[in-house]
Design a protein that fits this description.
Eight copies of one chain form a homooctamer. In chain A, α1 runs antiparallel to α2 and α6 packs parallel to α11. Chain A has eleven helices and eleven strands. The first copy, chain A, is of the alpha/beta class. Chain A has a five-stranded parallel sheet with strand order 8-7-9-10-11. Helix content of chain A is 40%, strand content 18%. In chain A, α6 links the parallel β7 and β8. The first copy, chain A, folds into two domains: 81 residues, no CATH class; 127 residues, Rossmann fold. Chains E and F meet through α3, β11 and α11 of E and α3, β11 and α11 of F.
Chain lengths: 245, 245, 245, 245, 245, 245, 245, 245
């Protein structure tokens, strides 16, 4: 509901065309749809700059389909994360595309990309699913995206080689598990905002990504933005917001 | 050391004006100064967009003074965080200003501010020192800064009242301790990038800020950038980088 | 065993109708039944206001059936939580109803509901199983129950819209995972006692609900009652106790 | 700001006595006072049933005095928790009383107590400060309060002796450190709602109260309301809310 | 190898019947058998009062069979813990008995029981597997054992009823999950040494038994012996050692 | 209150010499004294085999003196743990002795020692305060005690040398910090029950004794009794109970 | 790329045989191969002393095969850790050997072994897979390896027996789970560098190897090198590096 | 006690010059001195390659002096770590030197250094105390030592500049706090064994060094040896052992 609509209501009240009771009622009729188990929020994009997105994990395929269809019908696009092929098959939404590397389903992505570039780097091969989730998300929202995978600090020459590339982007997303050192090293090589995503890659004291997360929060390079473990989607959102500011 | 300097060296080598050995030597003579206990990094600003900054905590007053003077002499400005009044008194650097609310010392801040606005909000009165650290840092680096304190979710009307203000900024820094819910609520009200800083405010299971940190990492609003506990400085850096992208 | 029965025993002792030895013996013959692997406690309802309830998890289907039948035979009602459809099928208790959304089995629920209302809110769709466990429990015990799902803080307008509804209840149960901010926000909008239930919804640093739990314990709104993770049953009990005080 | 005031504004708009712009402005002029470092919330009592309270910890004595005086002037009463004698001495508020056992300062407590009783029990002598914080808070808000200290489970006869007393209350607050078993045992003896407060009493694996907290959350007695560690204030609030429902 | 054997070697050396080299060699020929992947320790019973026992978990069925047969052949008895029915079926050791409630396999248990009694109590039905592991172990080693299950603190009358029984034992093993309060309550009712075993029963903040473990370590009843989570075997060993001291 | 006293009351009831009301009243008059902030439990020794003991930590010197004097007047002996010299000086109890190595104050210790021996070993010099707390406690309760300090596993020959000594005791208390390996090694050398006490000796990942605690709980030697960190007092109690079984 | 190659490039630049642009380009053409999802690093052996190795866990069989073949083609050898039989079957690399005890696949191991010996000890039978991973790795890299399994501290005579053997090695790898005491005991018996590897063997508070890890980090024997949990591969690398220094 | 001494005893037994009883006695008279609170171990250097060292923390100045003098008298050298200036002043040992940067006291260090070099690097200025502890220790034991401080990854050009230096050493000790990335980066640049020491430098989620520790254990560079937090002493020992293998 835009401000102009609210102003219109107030003007109707002044004119006597609308009773006070009805005005109160209409103001409370907010633009979401109630599916009883979910309240689909059609104007979130206006408020937050990112449309409502479905986290598949923890929802049944039937719930996902119902929410997704309501969204697609009203907004013309929908993004579903942490989804399996089963969810996609059950969705039966013609325009939807399944991205197997990241488990993302998208329909109706923005076609015209912004001119700014979101660069996405991963430390290892095992971090690619999370990096791809960030890439698909930022691209869906309208950002131009490039990726550079397997450039971890153990072979630092592979990384230094790409230094110029990082500085050509408007924002760099860095995805890493294990000791999570890559954002510090890339952050030390560029003046671009760095969005760091820890992954659950590793074993033992990697604690499912916690060690990488804490390493990133303690980076000696100041101003690195940190995401939850495996949250490529959040990184894609933030990168796109920064890219289009 | 700029690229043009490196090109010049290479050209001298081609011309024979510079021997191969000397070229190698010069390339390794990087623009930092060795104080034996510290290597002051004069060209970090060029590379990372933020000059090297001194974390006072864990260093002696004598070490701080020595590093600060070297920096100030070469770069014309210096920022010291987590400092006490004692450190300031011992510094004897005429141009330095002590910010008591945040424990920051600054000298030679950028005068001309960018046009974009960094908005800084705190949940409670106890979170102000960290919020002020962010404010002083972003302002030192050249951003225009406004603050709005004590707008926590317990009295949500105080917060809704400020909604327009948040949307007028280019980036919003949100500082909160205890349950750390404020970034989620502000993030749900604006389309600006939100930088969340957990603070060590609270007791018992606030775990010195850990609960607020994890709450922020798990925000149901996508794309919130999270900082280390009490890291107002990092938030100020990131906000400034985003503001001047 | 009621107090009047105890008084009767003492009077018999005084009259000499009962020997001291037998009195001691009878007092120790307490009203529970020994199934060797379980001691079914038939008078718990009198003492604690809530009858003994079976937590299915960690017990075999045969054990559950044996305990449930003993309870139903003596008390005329039984509640089983965290149960699967398999447990229900194996139970073969005619009056039992299986609630698939919550995994609760109930038989012989109180028909006449109290006039006070228990309101149950959930932050997201994934929190519904726990919210339903609370709803079925409170209803089984005799409370009138209403639910409002998917009103999380990311779309705060959905929530503000329901403010009046929360204040019409005698007690509000709030179920949320991830950053667990919903109880703080609802607690800031109403003067009703709030019972907060963290859920294991989320990934990474949601730590299976721990982050939501700690956020709720640290709420800046004073006096929120917190339950164990996913403990909808406990919330239903407490809400009913408060409702019928 | 009451609903009648809002209705009045709307009526003025209809009559043309108030311009639309001014109406919007007035609606945003909410009843809190801005002290720049704090926004004192004068109508919180109306909304949440408990007035705003000052947590002394983490605030300077000057800040506390300024907030307290503003509150007292407008609401006629004020409560300050986790305060030292120094804070009290600096407060210079004539009506204020310092409760040394709990570190609470109160001024203008409700004189007429409700008829319902809040019973407060502590496991040991070391838990008394937290129990007293609950007692002073509930009494300040208007509840009748009785206390029973040092009734821990190691000498269970001391506890069974008080069983009748617990059942005469409308709500029982149980304060315990170390293994935190007391709420389970009291909860097994009464049908009253039990509010459990873990304390930081103990050493080694008591983890500053965490062990007691988790024990209480896992109580085999269903429906126990758990508070943050050492949060006697919150327990007093919840007990009073339940008592006056 | 007994001390007398060592004395005999030394005497042979003195007599010249044994060379110094051979004496050194023989002393190092210790009474264990090398299966390459395991060194079966035949004289452990002499040294530690308990024979070597096989923890099935983490070993293949073939390894277990090989170790068990070697032990049985030399010592005439063997105990295997945390075993499945599959392990038992693969064992093909005629004298072995499988205890399904605890997952223990035993062969050649001591027939003549000591006169002292080991009493084993469990808080709930779900704790029985661990309690049974303790019971089978103590009985295998030669102790007389009695059990009392489902006597948790939620229904404390079931427990007080058994007070005399606990005091008739020489040592009491108490097995409990969730909040782990039972050892404190039983320890407060008897002067017998109490061996407490936390179990992984529970969910959420029971942390797989950690909460019960820490509660037991922090018991306000002094001198409770605590075991690792689910370590019924260790409790059986300790109880037997105390019983036969 | 002994059983004979209870029998006497019941007989008076039968004879009519005592009214039912008075009988009920008298039965609830249990043998503890109410100091308002503490309920001193005079018959605990009878029930638990160990008299009530005062943990100084968390209590004021005035509270300690008041509780200690009440205990000493009624029981003729008192033990205070984790006490400072200041507490002792303030106590003014003539018969009291201050043990500086352990911070224990004792008065009226049992003079006639049992014949069985409690052996107490410590890994390092820094573990002595906790070991001494165990030694003073066991001795106060009536056990014969010997100590062997600084026999940690880094110099295993110092330990093997004492093997015979350990086996001459009825129970061995082993006190160790850091990696907590000593109980495993001593437990592998003797058939006596071993009581393990972790200490907070160490730094970094010793986690204030947690690493030693967990190592002891995971000992590959079965049946080691584990105490809370730094709980020498509890170890002394358990050792004495086992010694006098 | 060796230093001589770089010198050659520089000389070509001086001679004018190579343009500055091309020189820059060539220097950035580093010796790795880009498979898009992985950048295979062919000169790592030169730099780090150990060739790049494939951690199978978290990679698909197709990815592993592709990386392995590229490596084998260029370097003539390849090592894959934490692999299953399925990975091996899918690999179809003729020279590859599958080591079932450790889940390692190797092809092209160094034939000529160094003269120094790497000794590898395990505490129990369940620790053998990790110990074997270390053994296969060190052997693959060219070290002579001997193993001694099941020599844990519960039967310390089995261990003392092997003392001479440990001192004959150049470096000793000690693999242990549960309380992780073995490295301390072996470290106390030899002057060789000890590499300690905690394993996830155990249950309850073994925390998947964390207890063993912390015990090893806190060893009272100074200078023990600690590896991540279950990281036999890392231990094999370090042992080989020390062996060939 | 050397093996030859043991052989001599055995020969005396054979000759009859020594009774069996006396031989047993003498063998148990091991070369340590009993100070009652400490058993000073004079032959540890022979067994472990490093003499016994005194950790000052947790010991009184008097205890330290007594142990130190005994050691110095017998071995001619002594090393004390984590000591304050007060300890040094109280020591009154003429030959002792106090190293203020590391808090180490040394007397009688080895004069002739080995030819191999131990290189010690620190990430920041705050890590120097721990780095110096390693340096003083390795030098005391007889290694040649060089240091390179403040070469953290934020300014990676400072680090690459030193690459050649690292490769000229036989072993590299890397000391770092915060995100602990430095060992990975240095480990990627050299084939020398790397010993990593996490420090407690940092705040918030640096968890007193735990984040750096876990990062180092999870390094993507294989074979890094990790020490306990702030354990510069252990790193010095291990580096010297590797250097002199």
């Amino acid at each position: 509901m835009h401000k102009s609509e609210i102003a219109a209501i107030m003007k109707s009240v002044r004119k006597g065309a609308l009773s006070v009771e009805k005005a109160v009622d209409r103001l409370s009729h907010l633009p979401y749809e109630d599916l009883s188990f979910a309240k689909v929020d059609h104007h979130r994009h206006l408020v937050q700059g990112v449309p409502e997105v479905i986290l598949a994990q923890g929802k049944s395929a039937a719930e996902i389909r119902s929410i997704a269809k309501t969204m697609y019908r009203r907004c013309g696009r929908v993004l579903i994360t942490k989804a399996t092929k089963e969810v996609y098959d059950c969705l039966r939404l013609e325009q939807a595309v399944y991205h197997p590397a990241s488990g993302v389903i998208s329909a109706g992505a923005v076609k015209e990309k912004t001119r700014g570039l979101v660069m996405i780097a991963s430390a290892g091969t095992s971090d690619i699913p999370v990096a791809e989730e960030a890439a698909v998300t930022a691209s869906f929202l309208g950002s131009k995206v490039e990726t550079e995978y397997d450039v971890g600090v153990a072979g630092i020459h592979r990384l230094l080689d790409k230094k110029r590339k990082f500085s050509s982007a408007r924002v760099v997303v860095v995805v890493a598990g294990m000791e999570g050192a890559l954002p510090s090293v890339i952050g030390g090589l560029t003046d671009r905002p760095v969005v760091a995503v820890p992954t659950s890659t590793g074993y033992g004291t990697s604690f499912g990504g916690l060690t990488a997360l804490f390493a990133m929060l303690n980076s000696c390079v100041p101003g690195i933005a940190v995401m939850n473990i495996d949250n490529g989607f959040g990184a894609g959102c933030l990168a796109h917001k920064i890219n289009t500011i």
